[in-house]
Amino acid sequence: MKAAALEFERPAALAARAPAEALGRERDAVRLLVSTPDGHHHSRFANLANFLEAGDLLVVNRSATLPASLAAQGEAGSFVLNLSNRYGPGLWLAEPRRSASEPGGVAPRPQQSFLVGGTGGRFLAPFPRLPRLWFVHLENEREAMRRSGSPIRYGYLEGQYPLGAYQTVFADRPGSAEMPSAARPFTSRVLTDLRARGVELARITLHTGVSSLEVETENLEDHVLYPEAFEVDAAAAQAVNAARAAGRRVIAVGTTVVKALESAWDGRAVRPARGFTRRFLHPGRPVSSVNGLISGLHDPRASHLALLYALAGEEMVRGAYREAVRERYLWHEFGDSHLLLPARSREWVL
User: Is 212 helix (H, G, I), strand (E, B) or coil?
Assistant: First the structure.
């Protein structure tokens, strides 16, 4: 597939500029676009249970967000170092930026040193074929985040918000550079309604890196992803397999969940697994482990759109995004939500 298939028009004004709480609303007050074979329906996230049924299994990401944006000083002056993925003690993949609103603008060299929060660091090497990301070493990563860290933010936000605004109700395993934001609108009220509806819950872990990179290759299949740490434990694998065997829907809360489950998929079932994954899901590598998805709205040419195509088909996704633009839904981590429920496969029951 050509990467141009991921392009669409989205006005810049449709970026969510603040969390719902900062506007005096509950998290679950964001809008919910529901896409099914019957069309696209509009609601609020607080009403999520109305669109699910008894026996549905929601799989959520329990990763918690780190204060991963570091104020740094180097040879060229001040810059922002957004940590992305941890690969060992002090060893990170990171994105150096001139500021939250200015990508790039920093030209590191291998072994070039910098300071963050009074502790030293150095650039090691760029990530192959992703030159905006660099391997770095921090002498004291915890101290650097404690003294200098804040949540990663970008220029479309109107203010700065505490780390708690970037945590979901499921977050109990710190490790994500950016919030697994599909789960952000969940509240205790929503969870109570889901339990009353008979919806079940399972948890996996995938520590997210910096935002979904735009696909810059001509062919979608040539896009490069960096490794992200994940774990699908025995309880999650058993819950997914039991739901599948009974013909019940398995609905991922976030593209991170789909990526983790597909990385644990052995061709017939989900197996307990942990490690690092670079799994890139697109129409040429379809989704097998889930048949529904709750997600935010993704930017043009974002690699996550290719995953949506793989799950629900290009026609449904593009139709949903036209609807979202027309109805002025909001994008990004504090934006609105999208529930995709494509038709069940005849081969779903094993």
Answer: coil
- Residue 318's nearest CA partner among 291, 300, 336, 344 is 300
pLDDT single digits (tens) 67-79: 999 999 998 799 9
Element containing residue 324 per DSSP (H, E)? helix 314-326
SS3 content of the chain, % helix, strand, coil (to 5): 25, 35, 40
CB 139 within 8 A of CB 90: yes
| β-pair type (273-277, 91-97) | unpaired
pTM, rounded to two decimals: 0.94
Tens of pLDDT, residues 209-254: 997 567 778 887 888 889 999 999 999 999 999 999 999 999 999 9
Per-residue b or e along 203-218, where b marks 16 or more CB atoms closer than 10 Å to that residue's CB? bbbbbbbbbbbebeee
* φ/ψ bin of 280: left (φ > 0), alpha (ψ from -120 to 50), beta (otherwise): beta
CA 306 – CA 238 distance, rounded (Å): 27
What does the alpha-carbon distance between residue 318 and residue 207 come to, in Å, rounded to a whole number? 28
Nearest-5° Cα angle at 34, 331 to 185? 55
H or E segment to which residue 308 belongs:
helix 303-312
| Residue showing tokens 């960096």 | 226
C-alpha closest to that of 85 among 257, 213, 209: 209
Token duo for residue 171: 């977050």
Please state the rounded mean pLDDT for residues 263-274: 97
- Tokens 């109570």 -> residue: 192
Domain architecture of the chain: domains with CATH: 3-65+163-340 (3.40.1780.10), 69-150 (2.40.10)
